[in-house]
Design a protein that fits this description.
Blueprint: H1 6-9
Amino acid sequence: CGQSGIFRLTEFRLPAT
């Protein structure tokens, strides 16, 4: 799904890069 950082925090609502 996500990697880390801000994307990791928003991974629950949107697909992280």
